[in-house]
Amino acid sequence: MKSRKTLISILVTLVSVAVIAGTVLFARFVQDSLWEKSVTDVLEVTEQGQHALDTYFGKDLDTLDLFASELSLQHPDDEARMAEKLALFGAGNDGTVYVCANLVTGAVYRTDNDSAANLTAEQLVLAETAGERGVMEPFLDERTGSNMIGVYERFAFSDGTPGIVRKARPLNDMEARFSLSFYNGSGFSYVVNTEGDVVMRSQHRNSNRTFSNIYDIVGYEGNDEADVESFRAALEQNARGVALFSYHGDDYVFCYTPLAGTDGWDVVSIIPNDVVMEQANAIINATLLLCLVIIAGLGIVLAVYWRGSRAHRREIERMAFYDDLTGLYSAAKFALEGDERLAELGRGGSGGGVRRHRQLQAHQRRRRL
Question: Cα–Cα distances in Å, from 289 out to 170, 303, 337?
Answer without folding.
Answer: 53, 21, 53
